[in-house]
């Protein structure tokens, strides 16, 4: 039996305003930059409200990069590194196991090696050591001969660990981008734009972005290049790694990050990095035949491709195995070994996906027993969940329920440890309205350690304290989150007229690339367009639609939504929220919509309400005219019966009223069945027991066929006789 899934309607927010000031600004930006007015609106909506600021955003220059010496402790940090290299000290670069950490480690390691430094690298094992700096790691690093540790993408909260290192003669330089607590480590330098006393104006660098600024400063002061020369040289060597880490860590793609990502993506297009080239090839094809075809068509490198294809494979190493595998890939100069690692990362990513789906199902079962109205933060735990995957699952739960979610796993505790002393490692995601680090600070008396960002964080908690933590973080959420925060809202930049959607606009918006956080792919809205056709593709997993305005049509793709799930039908008028794509096929270019959300237009809803109201009037005895076409013919009854019969025999015994109407229109041109007529047919089927019909909800029916050789005697229907008497003859 097919279960009908009702779509929850999302709240649409349109960013554009309509004021004299707005129209004047759009006109100026359009004129001075010589661009499409819609592109000017997009720039304005992103905060570039003058021609000068819009031009600076579109035509970014490396000269716009900020002075690295404005970052607190940068000068102290590079002086300490230069001194260590002169003394011949061994240096260890200590990083995190995610993509930002891996790219940070590789960038700084390669740069220090180029200076002739004696350098090692260290990334903790997620399962065995967990996030951040540990005293055990410090001991191992000292035993290996290092006297200076430089952290990347971690270390800001390692106050006790740095104190311990100082006591045994190991010095620290911290480079990080996570939010700071009140106390900072007693290191030679703590380089983090989020330090309260750091005057650096752009706070949104990734961990690898902070490393980039550090080595630019080194090039400028220690090597002796000009600021522009230093930036260009470091870009030419490491922009690909810095861009990958920035995109993967979901940093805002604006200001310095936009410049970094633009240069980085261009470098990746023609990468000379053996490991990266191998990973792109392995990720872009599933088998040898596809790989051969792929060589003919070069993979287009976009921020989306990095974020959704490359980054998950790098992350998979740290999540499922060890991040050192991804580091080895980036450092490799051996094409054969690089290919082996790249293919292993792809296999590991598939393992990660399978584990993710398993945990996801278990989490949904637990949520079924969880009162999310009373407790807006979803805190779930289990003994066997893989530490490396729970963060991804937390993201999916947050997206689905529009609630903060924290998953805790007690996997890996040593045998013999008392049950309540088991250590759980957690990963959380939040929504706008609740800063997750602030929330964890509120609960810190019940946590062993924590750290992260506004919308994503990690933590450690004992089993004994888990319930107290769950209680306190929900107390914080109830005081800080509103009902409005927890309604899923989708944003669009502006509404368009049908004629605005064309190839020229699809090309024009490419000026805004690369996309990412704070510079998302443009989202538009069309209202009142007609659904001309609906087709399922890939076994019904996705939907292709044809949308029209009476004269022209547009093709639209709605991924991960089947035709049955849309709630709209051929002939309906709909409002559609979408991204605009440039489709190239057979040497021709066309504009194509990538649907983000779809719902009946206001006029369609009004029409449906009028149809229902009018039928209720007729059902209650109101007269009607022959032109209203309410009374079905035998052919109409037969057409509906055939459709229901075919559907039930194929295993689908639940149908919506409007779905039946749409299917009849598409399958039988010999009959004309409207809303009211189908209502009458359903009621007569029930009255004469031609078909058993159970009303599941508003206009959703479950059918059960009766197999009989006797012809149905429709003239016995009391309802039909009464309706004929109501029909006026005038």
Give a written overview of the molecule.
There is one protein chain. This protein is an alpha/beta fold and 730 residues long. It has 5 domains: 11-56 and 491-600, OB fold (Dihydrolipoamide Acetyltransferase, E2P), CATH 2.40.50.460; 70-270, Alpha-Beta Complex (inorganic pyrophosphatase (n-terminal core)); 272-352, no CATH class; 370-486, Diaminopimelate Epimerase, Chain A, domain 1 (Roll); 605-726, Arc Repressor Mutant, subunit A. 44% of the residues lie in helices and 18% in strands. The strands form 5 sheets. The protein has a 5-stranded parallel sheet, sandwiched between helices. The protein has a 5-stranded mixed sheet with strand order 7-8-9-11-10, sandwiched between helices. The radius of gyration is 31 Å and the shape is elongated.
Can you give me a brief rundown of this structure?
With 730 residues, the protein is an alpha/beta fold. It is built from 24 helices and 21 strands. The longest helix has 33 residues, at 335-367.
